[in-house]
Design brief:
7 helices, alpha/beta, 7 strands, seven-stranded mixed beta sheet, disordered C terminus
Length: 165
């Protein structure tokens, strides 16, 4: 069965880090799918840098003396899953057009869209509706079809309800 090409946003890793119950966390379910090779994730060096800086900054910010090493260990586990199970790429096309940057609201996040475009990913998985919600062309409760240049993909917002269950 062909794997679905994805780009996972840092917000998913932050959610995994902050989760209290890994068995019930949508973020951990995504990481488990990645480990099981059910999805194929793409990253760039810039994305990996952001993920590492963000995870360890949050671990240090929210940790107490009693939880510090557990949070640092959890950050290492999450990054290890991403590094071991993702394909590294260097985008050849910079998305610097004004329309893309205005929709995005945070120009620093363009690296994720460049990875989606370069990998021809079918899915972009995020919790960041504020920055990426403007790319959705028509949405339902948790997924929206989006377009960058001539590439269509689906944005999956995991922070929204995943169904009635």
């Amino acid at each position: 069965m062909p794997k679905h090409r994805t780009v996972i946003d840092t917000s998913i890793l932050v959610s995994a880090l902050k989760s209290r119950d890994e068995t019930r966390s949508p973020a951990w379910k995504i990481l488990e799918m990645l480990k099981a090779k059910e999805i194929e994730n793409y990253v760039t060096p810039e994305i990996l840098d952001e993920m590492e800086i963000t995870l360890f900054s949050i671990a240090m910010e929210f940790a107490t003396p009693e939880t510090y090493w557990d949070l640092v260990d959890k950050a290492h586990r999450i990054l290890g899953i991403i590094r071991s199970n993702s394909r590294l790429l260097e985008p050849k096309h910079a998305l610097s057009d004004r329309e893309t940057l205005v929709k995005l609201q945070d120009p620093d996040d363009v690296k994720f869209l460049e990875a989606v475009f370069a990998s021809k990913a079918k899915y972009f998985i995020t919790e960041n509706t504020k920055h990426f919600g403007n790319f959705v062309l028509k949405d339902d409760s948790r997924t929206g079809r989006a377009r960058i240049v001539n590439h269509y993909f689906y944005t999956i917002f995991t922070c929204l309800p995943l169904g009635n269950s």
